[in-house]
Each structure stands twice: as C-alpha cells, then as structure tokens.
Amino acid sequence: MNSLKKLCFISTLLIVCLISTSFNNTTGIVMSIETALKHQLISYKSINKGSHSGNCMDMEITNISKNKLVLKLESGRNLTSLDTNKQDILVVKEVLFVLNPAETIKKEVFGFCSQAHKSAPKLGETYAVGELKNDTIIQLTTFLSKNNYPLSAMQNAIWSLTDNRPVASIFHKNRDSIESLQAFVAQFYEKVTPWYSIQYSDADSGMVSNKATTIYGEFDGRLDKNTIVKIVIYDKYQISQVRKEIVTAQKGNKHAFSIAVHDLPSGRYEILFSTFGGRVDRKSFRI
Which of 85, 153, 275, 280 is 20 to 30 A from 231 in CA distance terms? Predict the structure, then answer.
C-alpha cells in the first residue's frame, strides 16, 4: 500500500511539474516576429548594411514581455523599405531568436533585393517586417538557403520570379555553378532551361539594367584541342551582326564560349559555330 501511495505521489508531482513547465516556459513554442510585433511582445529594429545581397541586414530585437520568447524570421518573409523608392529585402535564410525577458539580441539577416525596378538600398536605411510571400517565392528562397550558389546568381534568381526577368539572366561566368539554379527557376515558367546566360551592364541609377552586354554558354561539337571555331550571330533577317573566333581549350564534345552583344538591340538571334570543316552547331537566344 505504501508503495502504491508513493507511486501515486510521484506521478502527481510529475504531472504538476509538466503543467508548470508548459505554462511558464515558452521555449517550445516558436512564434513569428510578425506575430510578436502584433501583440507588442518585442521592440524591433532592422537596418541595411549598405548592400542588396547576402548578409545585408542587421536585425535587433528586445523582449519586452515577461516570458521567454522563441522567435522566427521565416525564409520568404519580405522586409519592407520605409523609403518607397528603394527595394525591399527578401529573406532567404531563416533566423531564430531566443530571448529571455528584457534581453536584446542582434543578428545578421541573409537576403536579397526583390524589386528590380527600384533603387538599391543604402547603409543605415530602416526596414519594417512585411508579408510572407507566396508558395512559389518560398520554394525558391528555401532552395537557395540549402545551396551555395554565387550571390549574384541568387540575386538574379530572385528577380526572375519577383520581376519576371528572363531565366537566362541568372548569370555567372562559370555556368556549371548555376545551371541547376536556372533549371529550378525554369520549372515555374514551364520552360526548357536556357543553354546560355546573359550578363547585363551596371545601371548608373542603382536600378537593374536591361542592357545585355555578353552571352555565356556552351556549344556542342566533337572537336580536338586548339581547333579554331568561327562564331557568327545573325538577326531575324539572317544578316550577320557579330563575328568572333575562338580556339578550343580541350578535346571534347562541349566547349565554353562568350561573345559580346552590347551593340545588339533587344530581340531574337541565331548563333552559328563552324570550323574549316563546316558547321558544328547552331543555337538561338533572346536578349
């Protein structure tokens, strides 16, 4: 009987402890920063570090409630510029804040500008917590958070979905490093992954340029090392517009190249690759 009473006492004590812990300790409950602000549980400050990509924001949060808080800044959350002429920042990597009452924590936020038609942010500009973006954008930011692509390619991937820019605008001189990113974004447009990337000029206004300067890609052809290849770009009237010669770097079936297109107006073009033995490959592109 004594053993049974002892067991009942211990069980009751455990239940009371669990209830008490659940009531007083919120560490197991993750709350969005948006919700915490709405219920006036925190004070918040988010400041740009003078960049539009990568760890470009500092976020400082103070717990002004009486309880411990676990807060989440979600991947896909928009941070809204208080200057309507400047781009918002789209959060890519989720950030957690665990704060005791009266505690202040500052963390970097990894994100990218998300409005190509507006100017880039400047050092010290402040941002508010905005909306959580749609499922397509969240899929992209989650994908980016799990992969180590060049920052410039990540930025162009964001603009491709938020501003309907071409998938080919996802650019890096090393195309091998970004082909899988182009493929991921292309699925949302139900398009074939482009075989090329477009490099654009830098705009003086701080906004994104639409002026293409260079095309990067690969052409197909079983060629030996040091083979001379003639490259010709034709417009829609089959008039040659750009000519260039390259020498293959190695023997193989695929060969990297780049060619300047800064003098060409926007439109669709064909590009022909040939050697002294005849045509090797022909492709089309749009700028």
Answer: 153
Q: What is the percentage of the chain residues whose pLDDT exceeds 90? A: 83
Residues 187 and 253 in one domain: no
CB atoms within 10 A of CB 174: 12
Tell me the percentage of the chain whose pLDDT exceeds 70: 89
Residue ranges in the chain whose pLDDT is less than 50? 1-2, 4-26, 205
User: What mean pLDDT is reported for the chain?
Assistant: 90
